[in-house]
Amino acid sequence: MKATAIAPANIAFIKYWGRVDDALTLPANSSLSMNLSECLTTTTVEFSPQREEDDITVAFYGEDPESLEGSKKDRIVRQLDRIRSLAGSHVHAKVVSKNSFPEGVGVASSASAFAALTVAAARAIGLSLSEKELTILARLSGSGSACRSIPDGIVLWEKGVDHDTSSAYSLFPPNHWNLVDIVCLVSKKEKTVGSREGHAGAWTSPYYRLRLQKLPKRTQKITTALAEKNLSAFGPILEEEAVDLHLITMSQKPPLFYWLGKTIDLIHAVQQWRMEGCEAYFTFDAGSCVHILCQQQSKEEVVKRLHQFDEKMQLIINTPAQGTRLTDTHLF
Ligand code: DP6
Fold it and tell me: 27 with 134, same domain?
């Protein structure tokens, strides 16, 4: 009754922001993302009848393992409860998890965390679920973007019309296109407002309904650019969408300002590099981190320019990755 899964975080090209059903985590729009090869969560789950309660230990990036308590533990226990109830079991679990990257800075650490937890726990308890069923189960964790970390490569989460139809699937395999995503850790401070509260406020932005109207066309256009591996078509849509997300967060009530001064400086820098012939584009999730997308052939040039921009800034260089996978190497 023990299993271990490794799950990638993902960067959204079309963002999930706002829900139509909070309890079921049904999003207001479909979203699209790429799995990140170097931002991984590994989680081992073991169910055992001798255990009297769930015991959850997390090794946060660069820190010693700690036993989780409070609201973070409650979210994980609720996800274990969903899995137990599907399996008709009441057995408690020991969970150990570790991250290869910093949490809470705009790289979706809860996405990889809940994807790894869901896949490992479902296997450990003996459930045999399809990829689609696993994405639905990961979505219910409340960290909706977790469902996009399960299938391979570039993934679409279709908003669907109800619980059974809101699921994620792979649009393109990891080797479809030699894209590179360079995460620039602008600040290592955890953001103060999580995405959960952020989603709730989306509808209060006067621009939110306009955003929802524009998204189907934008999603279609970026999918075509990805299919054609056309960076000059892909990049401007990527940037328009990233700015659009922050336009909503800054105009919702209460407003959320995720950008720091350095985030804006990087936007200007990337625009300048393009004028100089170095083709790269920016995006960001709900955080201060900037993700810079380019093709493999410009990676070294972009990294050189980033070092010139700030030699101390930590970078994580990702390629499109496979989704959540099981491994025999357990954490305990
Ligand atoms: C801005 O509710 O999935 O990153 O629980 O914080 O991982 P976390 O987030 P979730 O919302 C993600 C919001 C987003 C855009 C996106 O990833 O689509």
Answer: yes
Residues with CB under 6 Å of ligand 1 are 12, 15-17, 31, 108, 110-111, 143-145, 194-196, 199, 285-286
CA 104 vs CA 33, 190, 332: distances in Å: 18, 5, 25
The predicted pLDDT at position 65 comes to 84
- Least confident piece of the model among 97-111, 116-130, 173-187: 97-111
The per-residue pLDDT for range 190-219, each reduced to its tens digit, is 666 777 789 999 999 999 999 999 999 999
Is residue 20 located within the same domain as residue 158?
Answer: yes
Closest ligand 1 atom to residue 195 Cα is 6
**3-state secondary structure (DSSP) of residue 226:** helix
Structural domain of residue 307, as residue ranges?
A: 179-318
**Of 10, 30, 145, best ligand 1 pocket probe by most atoms within 8 Å of the beta carbon:** 145
Q: Which of 174, 192, 225 is the last residue of a domain?
A: 174
Two structure tokens written together for 95: 């969970």
pTM: 0.96
Sign of CA dihedral 211, 216, 222, 223: positive
